[in-house]
Amino acid sequence: MSLIPRIFGHRSNVLDPFTFDIWEPFRRAGVETSQFAATRVDWKETEEGHVFKVDVPGLKKEEVKVEVEEGNVLQISGERCREEEEKNDTWHCMERSSGKFLRRFRLPENAKMEEIKACMDNGVLTVTVPKEEIKKPEVKAIGISG
What we know:
By secondary structure, this protein is mostly beta strands. It is built from one helix and seven strands; from the N terminus they run H-E-E-E-E-E-E-E. A four-stranded antiparallel beta sheet has the order 1-2-7-6, with no helix packed on it. The chain has a three-stranded antiparallel beta sheet with strand order 3-4-5. The radius of gyration is 24 Å and the shape is rod-shaped.
């Protein structure tokens, strides 16, 4: 039991006499899914294509899905399940989030949907979407007479 009160944040034990946060029981309901649902994504565009980097620490590649919907919508989803509890276990702290996440991105028209690649390394999913070269219209100079 902590001797230092936590004014901000939450505690894992609502019966702790040193907890000043009276709203704790009402906050716990959505904490697990809301934190994981806010999965962080970086999206950058390079000359070759679009690169998405998604933080999914602790997930295996089998627990993450990368799909294309409606022709040009990239959908990245997954789920981290809560660790099973044993009856004799006593939790002192439970901060790792669990739950489902889903992120969707509408890709531009020049994205090559059939050549999308995904790989996972050290808890970071990298999705690469190549893009077609946009042909610039040919500009023809016209001389001015007179």
